[in-house]
Write a structure and sequence with these properties.
Blueprint lengths: L1 H15 L2 H18 L1 H8 L6 E7 L5 H10 L4 E5 L4 H9 L5 E7 L5 E7 L5 H22 L4 H8 L16 H38 L2 H5 L5 H33 L8 H4 L7 H26 L5 H7 L1 H17 L6 H6 L6 H11 L4 H29 L8 H14 L1
Parallel strand pairs: 1-2, 1-3
Antiparallel strand pairs: 3-4
Helix pairs in contact: 1-10, 2-10, 4-6, 8-10, 8-12, 8-13, 8-14, 8-16, 10-12, 12-16, 12-17, 14-16, 16-17, 17-18
Length: 417
């Protein structure tokens, strides 16, 4: 047991100090911080709170002020300037980057406002959308005035319809609760997917590297192959948890510090408030169990090859299994109670992501999450027993690799020990 502890500590510390781990963690950490502070970064490169300057050529001579008032009510960042001089002069100012662009407002055949926006580039759709929305409001007010509608009638006309969604099933959350849970589940699914692929594959590659360099022959003379296998697997698990904790902590504090400014689009659809503690617990549990399952599989596959270049090819089926589980989970985000999600969540190789999707998004009884964890534990034990036997013989196996033949030879060698 003392030897196993030494191996485990060495496996964890050596990987923790490795350049690849530090560089990968630094890159991911930068990515998380950039995403969490995207609004501040955009403001920094756009000159902080500097507003976009738009010149308005009002050919109607009476729509500029109503249009400006509508933009102000929308809390728009656009700053309007009434045109002075000819359109040619204004165009020249835009080309010299004094203004972002200019807007020509006129009346159509029905005497309703229409506009043409001209700029050197039209990639910023937020500007055109805001201008269009403000002009639409002006048009609505003009139409209401012609129909002699009162302000109360106009407000009633423009008020949004009341529409609620009520779930009749007990195991389904409300629409708001689903939005709040979806954000964390979405992010953690990515974390589980990449961590399982990265760390599980690293275990198999490490075994193949030791075999290729003949270091394995020295190691097995002092420590049993099975102890080596589980030391590598658990060392990778601790490393994955360390990296996951760092990234989640950075993401949490970034989102929390910018929560007031993170609105619209992604952050409206993927809510981040009122996150349940149980969701975090389930994420850690299924991350660990998923990793242990795939790392065990990767270790025994890595022990069957004698060259590093054969390791990735040998582990390709395992990678496909993880990818299939991930894509099924992504497809199930919109409908986590779908039949295929429920059924496949009990298939061990898909359970880490699909079962986590279900328990994170739905109001399921605790026994459902426990049953998923139990399925994984049973499979991990079986994989560990089979994997230990194959690993014991596989580390002694050299030569050309062939999956089925290599497994048969590895089992024969383990029996002969």
């Amino acid at each position: 047991m003392n030897k196993f502890g030494i191996l485990l500590g060495h496996s964890y510390i050596s990987k923790l100090k490795s350049k690849s781990f530090l560089i990968t963690t630094a890159i991911l950490l930068i990515g998380v911080l950039v995403m969490g502070n995207m609004n501040r970064i955009i403001d920094l490169f756009s000159g902080g709170s500097q507003k976009d300057k738009i010149v308005v050529i009002d050919q109607t001579h009476n729509l500029y002020q109503p249009f400006k008032q509508q933009l102000k009510m929308m809390n728009s960042d656009i700053r309007l300037y009434q045109a002075e001089g000819s359109e040619a002069e204004i165009k020249k100012s835009v080309m010299n980057e004094k203004y972002k662009g200019y807007l020509v407002i006129s009346l159509d055949q029905a005497h309703m406002p229409q506009a043409t926006y001209k700029a050197t580039e039209l990639t910023d759709t937020a500007i055109t959308n805001q201008l269009k929305q403000a002009l639409q409001a002006v048009k609505g007010n003009m139409a209401a005035a012609e129909l002699k509608l009162s302000s109360e009638q106009l407000m009633l006309l423009n008020s949004p319809v009341s529409f609620k969604s009520v779930n009749l099933q007990r195991d389904v959350k409300s629409e708001e609760e689903l939005a709040q849970a979806r954000g964390l589940v979405y992010i953690l699914l990515f974390a589980i997917y990449f961590a399982v692929i990265f760390y599980a594959s690293a275990v198999g590659t490490e075994v193949a590297t030791e075999k290729a360099s003949r270091v394995m022959e020295i190691l097995i003379s002092s420590v049993s192959p099975v102890q080596q296998m589980f030391a590598k697997i658990l060392g990778g698990a601790l490393l994955g948890l360390t990296q996951m904790a760092v990234l989640l902590a950075a993401a949490y504090f970034s989102v929390k510090s910018n929560l007031k400014t993170l609105s619209g689009g992604f952050f409206d659809f993927f809510g981040f408030s009122d996150i349940e503690v149980s969701t975090i617990i389930y994420a850690v549990v299924f991350f660990l169990l998923g990793y242990l399952l795939y790392a065990t599989l990767a270790a025994l596959l890595g022990s069957l090859v004698s060259r590093i270049e054969d390791a990735q090819q040998m582990m390709m089926p395992m990678t496909f299994l993880v990818m299939i589980g991930f894509f099924l989970a992504m497809a199930g985000l919109g409908n986590p109670s779908a039949t295929y999600v429920t059924v496949l969540s009990y298939v061990p190789f898909f359970t880490p992501m699909l079962m986590f999707l279900r328990v994170g998004m739905l109001d399921l009884p605790m026994w459902v999450g426990i049953s998923g964890a139990a399925v994984l534990l049973v499979m991990i034990v079986l994989m560990a027993i089979i994997g230990a036997r194959i690993y014991r013989g596989g580390v002694l196996l050299y030569g050309k690799s062939n999956s089925l033949r290599s497994i048969r030879k590895a089992l024969q060698l383990s029996k002969g020990e």
